[in-house]
Design brief:
By secondary structure, this protein is mainly alpha-helical. It is built from twelve helices and no strands. It is elongated, with a radius of gyration of 22 Å.
């Protein structure tokens, strides 16, 4: 994909395919009036990248806050018991396509279509169930004696959560935040249905425009895909230690 983003248009459809371009060009990134796709330029990605970043960031923050709060009360105060835990995780079984039409009608009546918030609400609900389930496992492994010691020192439930449980469960919290961000950054179907202008459309939806009934602009698609990957790769590299710990915690014992 990276090498294709630097290929001229003549190299996109060569058979057999060639790995390296016959000549390196940045026309897929900057656009060129001589190319078949005159509007194929990643310069036009800027508003969609802004939308994706805002939606993914707010989704990650909101889903993490809700997941931490829900996992805390379920783990420490047994609110809802196993039935609530099973219900939370069962929401992941429902394919998003099943609920998109009802959600479309609801958001239309609320005048939230083609806004960031329609997408953020759906993403947050979808990712909160996974985050809550994972953090319940983390909180259950933290000895309750730590909570009791905090209570003896005069901490209430909120301070105990902030000063004791969150630091102990930090790898899991960072993992959930990163997964929520990456899901929101790369999701296509929900954003396609709920948005229709550059005011709210995300990067994956915009990249789909390079696939037409006449031809596929492999160069601009590859250039856009390369730029879309960069934030995900950087975030994953920075938080790799926490991500591995969070995703493998409790998988092997002894």
């Amino acid at each position: 994909m990276i090498t294709t983003s630097f290929k001229p248009a003549d190299d996109w459809f060569k058979w057999p395919p060639i790995l390296l371009p016959t000549r390196f060009t940045f026309e897929s990134y900057g656009g060129s009036p001589t190319e078949v796709y005159k509007a194929a330029s990643v310069v036009s990605l800027v508003p969609y990248m802004r939308n994706s970043f805002i939606i993914a960031s707010l989704t990650a923050i909101l889903s993490t806050l809700i997941s931490v709060s829900a996992a805390f009360v379920i783990s420490r105060f047994k609110v809802g018991g196993m039935r609530l835990i099973n219900w939370v995780i069962s929401t992941r079984i429902i394919p998003p396509i099943v609920v998109l039409i009802p959600l479309y009608i609801i958001f239309q009546s609320l005048r939230l279509l083609d806004t960031w918030w329609s997408v953020i609400i759906v993403y947050t609900i979808y990712m909160t169930s996974l985050g809550t389930f994972v953090l319940i496992v983390f909180f259950n492994t933290i000895p309750k004696e730590l909570d009791e010691a905090a209570y003896l020192d005069g901490c209430g439930p909120f301070k105990t959560l902030i000063h004791v449980l969150i630091p102990a469960a930090l790898p899991g919290i960072i993992s959930i935040t990163l997964l929520s961000f990456l899901f929101s950054w790369s999701e296509f179907l929900i954003a396609l249905i709920l948005t229709n202008t550059e005011n709210s459309q995300t990067l994956p939806v915009f990249v789909g425009r390079y696939i037409t009934g006449f031809q596929i602009a492999w160069g601009p698609i590859s250039a856009a895909g390369t730029l879309i990957m960069l934030p995900a790769i950087i975030l994953a590299y920075i938080t790799l230690r926490y991500l591995i710990t969070g995703l493998t915690f409790g998988a092997v014992k002894g």
